[in-house]
């Protein structure tokens, strides 16, 4: 087979590929649908999903002082079950992965004896900042959002009523509890 025959075969293959590609472009042009402004599909019930979010935001806007009036210490104690993996709540207990939370309300941030805090909490401790009811509420809501650089791996608790119960329980963990706001 000489080179002229090879050139004819290669030319035929390239011609067919060019024809197929050209046909695809023309077909795409002919059968193209309208341009979509927003990708995806509207799901049924989308409006119903918005209402609970608005209620949650309204509930979150309620200050901790108001929520503490209806908070329940027993529910708060049950709500800290997951926290017990990293924290102790008893007086005189040893630190775990997290510091002991006995007498946390109005305690200087980053001041538990024998616990190695993150740089962010050490900085707050140097300033003398304390764990107020509002601080605790914000921290439990979103630890990493409230305190950039914290080592706490907890994602946070969105339910304001549950946070109030937990804070009421933390309030009770003291020989002389700080008065409620």
What this model shows, in words?
There is one protein chain. This protein has 181 residues and is mainly α. It folds into two domains: 1-31; 50-172, Cytochrome c-like domain (Cytochrome Bc1 Complex, Chain D, domain 2). Helices cover 50% and strands 0% of the residues. It is built from eight helices and no strands. The radius of gyration is 31 Å and the shape is elongated.
Sum up the structure in keywords.
mainly alpha, Cytochrome Bc1 Complex, Chain D, domain 2, 50% helix, elongated, 181 residues, single chain
Task: Offer a concise description of the structure.
By secondary structure, the protein is an all-alpha fold. The protein has helices at 3-30, 46-60, 64-68, 73-79, 119-127, 133-141, 143-146, 160-172.
Global shape: elongated
The average pLDDT score comes to 86
- Looking at the overall shape, the CATH architecture of the largest domain is Orthogonal Bundle
What is the CATH T-level topology of the largest domain? Cytochrome Bc1 Complex, Chain D, domain 2
Distance between the termini: 98 Å
CATH class of the largest domain: Mainly Alpha
Which ranges are low-confidence, i.e. pLDDT below 50, for 5 or more consecutive residues?
Answer: none
């Amino acid at each position: 087979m000489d080179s002229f025959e090879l050139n004819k075969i290669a030319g035929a293959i390239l011609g067919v590929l060019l024809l197929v590609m050209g046909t695809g472009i023309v077909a795409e042009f002919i059968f193209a649908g309208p341009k979509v402004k927003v990708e995806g599909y509207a799901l049924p019930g989308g409006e119903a999903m918005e209402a609970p979010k608005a209620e949650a935001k309204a509930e979150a806007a309620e200050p901790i002082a108001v929520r503490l009036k209806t908070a329940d210490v027993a529910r708060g104690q049950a709500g800290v079950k997951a926290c017990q993996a990293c924290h102790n709540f008893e007086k005189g207990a040893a630190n775990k992965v997290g510091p002991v939370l006995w007498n946390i309300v109005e305690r200087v941030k980053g001041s538990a004896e024998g616990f190695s805090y993150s740089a962010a909490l050490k900085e707050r401790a140097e300033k003398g900042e304390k764990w107020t009811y509002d601080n605790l509420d914000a921290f439990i809501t979103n630890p990493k959002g409230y305190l950039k650089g914290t080592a706490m791996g907890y994602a946070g608790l969105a339910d304001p009523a549950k946070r109030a119960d937990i804070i009421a329980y933390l309030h009770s963990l003291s020989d002389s509890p700080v008065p409620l706001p």
